[in-house]
Amino acid sequence: MMNSVVEIAGLRVVRGGTTVIDGLDLSVGAGVTGLLGPSGCGKSTLLRSIVGVQRVAAGDVTVLGEAAGSAPLRDRIGYQTQSSSVYDDLTVLENLRFFARVLGLPTAAAEDALASVDLSSHRDAVVGRLSGGQRSRVGLAVALLGSPALLVLDEPTVGLDPVLRRDLWALFHRIAEAGTAVLVSSHVMDEAERCDTLLLMREGRIIAHGTPTEIKESQGADDIESAFLALVEHGDAA
Description:
Blueprint: E1 6-15, E2 18-28, E3 32-36, H1 43-51, E4 58-63, E5 66-67, E6 77-80, H2 92-102, H3 107-116, H4 132-144, E7 150-154, H5 162-177, E8 181-186, E9 197-202, E10 205-210, H6 212-219, H7 224-237
Parallel strand pairs: 3-8, 3-9, 6-7, 7-8
Antiparallel strand pairs: 1-2, 1-4, 4-5, 9-10
Helix pairs in contact: 2-3, 3-4, 6-7
C-alpha cells in the first residue's frame, strides 16, 4: 500500500446504460505500467476514472492518497487523451506557454517540459507541420507541465511507426526514472515487453497483473499475446 500510486476498490462504471466496469479492484505502483487490451475493453474508461473525469456508479478510486478528481490532485496528475490536446496553428513553445498560464505555472515550466521530451530544437515549429511522433511529444510535454507525480497516457503510440513507438517508450522510461509514475494504455500486444508492470484487460476486467515475465510464465507462453489468449480461453472455459 505504501508504494501504491493508485488504489481502486469495487469500481463500477455504467455508460449509456451499459456496465463497462463492474467490481474492479486494482493497485498501481511506480515505474511504467502498461494497460493492454483490445479496443473497447474499458481501458479509456478506467483511465478516466483514475484521472477523475469519469462518473462512477460505485467504488473508491484513490490516487496519491487522495480521492480521484479532488482538488489536491489537479497539479499532480498529467493526462494525455487519445485526441489531440494542442493547437495546430501555434508553435510548440506557444502551446506550452499557453497551457502553463492556464495552470498558473511560470514561463520556465514551458521550457522545462520542452526539454523533457527532446523538442527544444522544434520550439518555434508550428505544431500542424510536425510529424505524428513530434505531435505526440508536444501533447506529452503539455501533460508534463508542473512535473506531475502520475502521468496517464491513453494510447499515445497509436498510428505511429515502430521507430517512433520505440523512441516514445524510451522516453516514458526516462520520465519514470526521474520519479514520475507512468500509466500507459495500448491495444498493441508487442508493446507489452516495454513495460515494467502489465495490466491485461478484457471486457472491463483485469485478467492478469504482473511483470511481463511473470504473466508469460504463469501461462507457459513465449509472448504476451499467447499468454493473453490462454487467459481468455481459460476464462471462457471456466
